[in-house]
Amino acid sequence: MRLLVTGGCGFIGTNFIRHVLAVRPEVSVVNFDKLTYAGNPANLTDIEGEHGGNRYSFEHGDIADAGRVRDILERHAIDAIVNFAAETHVDRSINDSTPFITTNVLGTQVLLQAALDRGIPRFVHISTDEVYGTLGPEGLFREDTPLAPNSPYSASKAGADLMVRAFHETYGLDTVTTRCSNNYGPYQFPEKLIPLMYRKATAGEPLPVYGDGGNVRDWIHVEDHCRGVLLALEKGRPGGVYNFGGASERTNLDVVRLILKLTGRSEELIRFVKDRPGHDRRYAMDFTLAARELGYAPEHSFENGLAATVDWYRANDAWLASVESGAYREFMDRWYGD
Ligand code: NAD
């Protein structure tokens, strides 16, 4: 089987490609990535050396470029597409939503149309719990919870999810959509909460926490998510939607405190800053459908997984420094004012 993985140079795509190549010797992967500020080809350099030209190859390009997508599907005998490619940072979407629509909505539609035209047998679309909006103190998101996105990012992901649904309902394209809670683990870009706070803590800089720090997220180790995506690819019902979670709800403040503890820094570094506009209060996932139909269960406990992640960042300082390009720094400095 030959997979086209889009966005494979990003955080989850990188982990997914590594996972698939490790556990499915019969599968080969074509990684199609635009290499935005969030894409780092160095994440997979060792894989290229190991499997180059044989089980792994890289194609540079934009999922919203129909000609380029067609060209890639014509040159590689693709059996399934797994679409991770996206603009993913909520704060950036508040700053400018345009690239979110172009990549997340238009890009997904271009891929779907190309898959339909080429008769690609399987299309797995990676989405997020954020499409459901926000929860109060009780309850969980289920797959039939109405979509109610509150940020330009989540609205663009919901738009993509609905286009995937439409291609299944209208044309019978064999699609599966996965919706997952907050991921953490190796190779996460340092604009996201955990690596950002790790970076600030180790530098002895103030750690900015939105609002009162009481916003709750469910944390899933990226390896658990990758196992879930592979299960969805192999066993998911055509047209199916599956939630994945880590059964690890924590407030942002809890997460920040844990990182300070793991890095040996004082809680005096915590700075409460003006809340993010439209900030969802709580996300939590009911993943019983994925457990029942796919056999999914998270394996990592949050505290152990976080400690291992901090160890990974500690051992990979050079990686962290290398992804912090000029463009990245410019946005972060402007947005967080440090
Ligand atoms: P990321 O920002 O780390 O990586 C995104 C990748 O997509 C980058 O390599 C980037 O270069 C590539 N890309 C962006 N625009 C592209 C385009 N037009 N064409 C081709 N490639 C393009 O993202 P991530 O955190 O790895 O997230 C991957 C997917 O998982 C996204 O669809 C995201 O919505 C979803 N998701 C993420 C989380 C999370 O906690 N990170 C949770 C749930 C769902």
Automatic annotation (TrEMBL):
It is an enzyme of class 4 (lyase). It catalyses: dTDP-alpha-D-glucose = dTDP-4-dehydro-6-deoxy-alpha-D-glucose + H2O. GO terms for biological process: nucleotide-sugar metabolic process. It comes from the Bacteria. Keywords: Lyase, NAD. The keyword Signal does not apply. GO terms for molecular function: dTDP-glucose 4,6-dehydratase activity. Residues 4-307 form the NAD(P)-binding domain. Belongs to the NAD(P)-dependent epimerase/dehydratase family. dTDP-glucose dehydratase subfamily. This is dTDP-glucose 4,6-dehydratase. The gene is rfbB.
